[in-house]
Predict the structure.
Amino acid sequence: MSSITAPALPEDETFPAARGAFEDFWRRFHRDYVALAAICFIVFTIFAAVLGAPLAAWLTGHPPDQQYVNGLTIDGIPLPPMSHEVGPDGVTPNPHGEFFILGTDKLGRDVFVRLLYGARISLFVAFTATSVALLIGVVLGLIAGYYRAVGDAIISRGIETAMAFPALLFAVGLAAVIGAGLLNVIVVITIFSWYYPARVVRSAVLSLRQAQFVEAAHMVGASHRRVMFTHLLPQLTAPLIVYATGVIAANILFEAGLSYLGLGVPPPTASWGQMLSDGVSGGLYRVQPWLALIPGLALASLMLSFQLLGDGLRDALATKSAA
Amino acid sequence: MSGYAAHRVATAVAQLLIITLVAYLLFFVIADLTGASPAQRVAGKGATPERVREIAHIMGVDRPWYEQYATFLSRLARGNLGYSFQRRQPVADVVFPAAAVTASLVLGAAVLWVLIAIVVGLVGALHPRSLADRVLTIGVQVSIAAPVFWVAPMLAYLLAYQPTQGTLLGIPLGRSVSWLPIQGYVTLTSDPFEWARHLILPWIALAIGFAALYARFVRAFVLEQLSEEYVKTARAKGARESRIIRRHIGRLVAPAIVVLLGLDVGVALGGALFVEQVFGLPGLGYIGLSSIQNLDYGLTVGVITFAALVAVAANAAADLIQAMLDPRVRAQ
């Protein structure tokens, strides 16, 4: 009877453990307090939008589209933050009436509840449009960078031409022609955000396609599609994640801009850009600066968080700035 | 060089053709399909179908799209941007005065943001990780994040409206001061002083975001150059730090900024749209937006064509300047 036994490992000797890519990333990222704070704020905003909005509407008893007659003074002026609705004389606050944490807007609606519902639109539009744009950009960039030749010529010229468009003016025109609506806003933003990712992927693939691992994959008989999607694409994950945070920030701004111009999601659905433009139009912000301050502050904080997260991810993933 | 220039100009012309074609299709063909018929709009709601067809014929929108586009192009080549049937005047008569307003806004803001960026970027690059650098970096991050359509009304509120109520940033002034107008525009030719006074806030509002982006660029660029061998050589030869910055690095930063400016003209036109909207400046963005709202698509296409022409030309000019200054670009 013979048995093979593995040689016993010496108990007291520790081997250096090989670190995975994620572990490597986490070791650097978990000390980056700015990026962690940014990600906390983003997660908080997502929760506030998804769960917080209906919760706030339920707790305050104020549906987002409910217009309160006593939420405006007798002169039609919205109420400032932390105020009760006005009493029968239309001026003095009624301490037993409805309470508005962030005041009311020009139609007497609760700004706090609308701010939370507005976050839904911002995040949903930005995430959806960015995902679709990245998908288009990655596929076109891979094809252009990998096959070169005619495909590259067509796609590259397409990217250059798309970049030459005065994007905002066209987006405004397109939004006006196809009409307002959630889907249309996403389509418009996608049309004007696919080409930067495509360019980034193309140039990355151009430099990677000569790499030895690509040659090796070809030698063992991998198909072009397999080389592109299982060998090249994983190499692009890190720069793409960094890049995506930037695109999301840009698209949050894009959506807010379209809504600000009245070309976003149609009223009465709350969106930050529209809340801002409601506060600005007609000079209302001179009487109640809160109406412009609050949604703008929310927008700027969310944009800032995505920027800082992007910087942190770039440092932790040790990728060069994509662009 | 001439080969590169010819190629670059040809590309610009091709881009312009595609942009105008897309603009034309979008506003005349797709708009027609979605029911916002330009002829119907001109004729008015109560017009009979015959009258609408008659007007469509006068406007030329009853012909196939390629014929319409060919007419549009041949007119464009002769400097005719079309006719606004709603305003009953040639588009050029509306676009050129508006372009002067937008040019005042964008060029003034560009001067401002380049100056700010150079100062902020140099402070950061020469004293990296100092307190000043850290404070400025935070300022840069916040300025990039703040949307222009939020910064503009906030500036108008704090610096123009509040002084009229007797306070400036919380400090009581004791009397109502109206040193900056909240809205409006005065042409340069009629009164240069009033022109500048009306544009100070719009300039600042448009410049803040760009200044932050450019400052970040200048800081990174100068920091990178400072570790180059030629800087060491210059230092070894006894050149002062100020001379190194001005004579050696400055010569590299300046063309890089020119190229960035050329690329950003289109983006700046987009930002100008919001600033014009907030401050009531009758610029390209303002009339472009109002033309879209009024379904005056002849004017819309005129504005977009003009804006695209400026953006594409600026882009090409930036590339040509870069090629002139850097032989490596020409070789590509």
User: Anything to note?
Assistant: The longest strand of chain A covers residues 83-84. Strands of chain A lie at 83-84, 99-100. Residues 115-317 of chain A form a domain with the MetI-like fold fold (CATH 1.10.3720.10). Chain A has a mean pLDDT of 85.
